[in-house]
Amino acid sequence: LVVRSPEGDLTLYCKGADTILYELLHSSCDSLKEETTEHLNEFAGEGLRTLVVAYKNLDEDYFQDWIRRHHEASTALEGREEKLSELYEEIEKDLMLLGATAIEDKLQDGVPQTIETLTKANIKIWVLTGDKQETAMNIGYSCNLLYDDMEDVFIIEGSTSDDVLNELRNARKKMKPDSLLDTDEINIQFEKPSKKPKLIPDEQANGVYGLVITGHSLAYALEGNLELELVRTACMCKVVICCRVTPLQKAQVVELVKKYKKAVTLAIGDGANDVSMIKTAHIGVGISGQEGMQAVLSSDFSFAQFRYLQRLLLVHGRWSYIRMCKFLKYFFYKNFAFTLVHFWYGFFSGFSAQTVYDEWFITLYNLVYTSLPVLGMSLFDQDVDDRWSILFPQLYVPGQQNLYFNKMVFVTCMLQGIYSSLILFFIPYGAMYNTMRSDGKAIADYQSFALMAQTCLLIVVSVQIGLDTSYWTVVNQFFIWGSLSVYFAITFTMYSDGMYLIFTASFPFIGTARNTLSQPNVWLAIFLSITLCVLPVVGFRFLKAQLKPTPSDKVLLKIKEAKKRPPPPSPKRRLRRTSTRRSGYAFSHQHGFGALIMSGRNMRPKSPFATTGTFSPNSDKHKHKGL
After folding, report:
1. Which of 140, 159, 294, 527 is an S-S bond match for 272, by CB 3.0 to 4.6 Å?
2. Quick one: where's region Disordered (predicted)?
3. What is the pLDDT of residue 606?
């Protein structure tokens, strides 16, 4: 920022991190720099966010020449960014240290509890911040990321590439000594040349550890020969804190995790410096607040409070995953059972391409009869409500392990579909073979068999989706019973005498519905088909839950037991008066002390600011002694 005083003097003011501005200071500021560093460390130890402020007096002729060159660089068609960067570096040197600022960065409500809950859900949390190391660690302790019961908190602050490598390896040696041996599987895997990207499997440490790395050391760790060491060491730790990092380094860290780990990354931020990180992650979340709307506009999801993240992941995210998995399993099952009946029928029809079902049933099966029930399940189903999802974060773990839909689940759906198709073909075939009605007339014809097979199929898949549904609503009931009612209504209408007289060629199954479905043995065969298709599924699920329960089954059992007990009385929350004078800036949603500070009314009398509330480094009274 360049300011012209009433006397016409030009002054350049700069603010930024101490690690950046200290390199731009004049050599005469060494003594003041040491004193300011002590103050910065003291402020950072109290959890305050610190910045350094410096200034520089500018000559009028030089500034006019610099403005002219800046305009030429900003309008250049080639190398615009490089030219502007050179001009900024030219003017931002030999600065005079003015002092440091420190503000309180007040956390939003529920941040520590949210982080603790997400940690129980086996979600790895990495903090990428531009704060000083002391401030970042204090925030880590206040958010329950770091705690005293940890075995150790490794601090990586090497100034050279070799120092960073040694610190990372020493940390990994303490967490898992065998990982440095040549016989380690990961070391052997990465020694072999391969064109395909290699993924690092999960490694278990011998305790709970934390990792803190500074931005200067991170620059070396992100190099090609050290990035593997950084990922392996960091992934063994329970929490990773990267401090004094640039926006580009935030994006590089996220990209590094995506490169070497088979994981889904989520980045959450509230400022413009988080935009690159949010765009790089698989899922970007922006927090709307005092930091602006850049993060919100670049994100996939946005909300006003960090604590809403636990509902996004543990409630709505988990429900969405369960619904998609159930939808896919049911979709594959009902179509396997529907299609393979044609295959078994081919052995008896000489593979003549004759369909086993009525052509109208084939058209309406996926379009009308089975579309709404699966839609209702995929929109409303939930295994437990939101309250239990928050109380038991372990329910989120099966989704991370991909347990609800994988190759084994797909094979199971296929085998179930094959078994159901065999039942749905041979039971109606055996029931219709040489069968006579009560009046002595035969009903062992193709049309009666087709009607019986398609009726069995539709009832079986409707019962199956009823077994898959965990949360029943009026909509689910209406869709399932409505689909069956629509099927029988359409069937009796299309197979009636009137439709045959109007559209003779299109509806040849005249009278088949009323003649076939009026026989008791037909309904007995339908009941037998449903029982044989559903009973193995119910038995398998019962035995699996009893003999080999998954972590989700164990948690669901705890929830059932908890529901039987009377609920504990809800704690009474005390109302707090909200103060209008808060000093939280980065995460606060209320006005701080900005107007009060700018007015100068709260300054001490002994300060040179007391009389006017302004300061100019060009005044003779306050010029630096080194000039």
Report:
1. 294
2. 558-583, 599-627
3. 44
Average pLDDT over residues 37-41: 85
Is 184 annotated as belonging to a binding site? no
Check whether 265 is labelled as a binding-site residue.
Answer: no
Check whether 49 is labelled as a binding-site residue.
yes
Tell me if 560 is assigned to a ligand binding site.
no
Domain borders along the chain are 2-103, 111-188+199-263, 314-564
Q: What is the pLDDT of residue 439?
A: 64
Residue 274 assigned as binding residue: yes
Q: Which residue has the higher pLDDT, 218 or 516?
A: 218
- Which pLDDT tens digit goes with each residue over 215-230? 889 999 998 778 888 9
CA 598 to chain centroid: 41
pTM higher than 0.90: no
Question: Was 15 annotated as part of a binding site?
Answer: yes
Query: Beta-carbon neighbour count of residue 620 at 10 Å?
Result: 5
What is the secondary structure of 358-420 as a DSSP string? Answer: -HHHHHHIIIIITHHHHHHHHHH--SS-HHHHHH-GGGGHHHHTT-SSSHHHHHHHHHHHHHH
Establish whether 8 is an annotated binding residue: no
Q: Is 244 annotated as a binding residue?
A: yes
Per-residue pLDDT tens digits for 383-432: 888 888 898 898 898 888 888 999 999 999 999 999 999 999 999 988 88
Bridge partner list, 128: 242
> Known binder of ligand: residue 582?
no
Q: Is 623 annotated as a binding residue?
A: no
Number of H helices, E strands in the chain: 27, 11
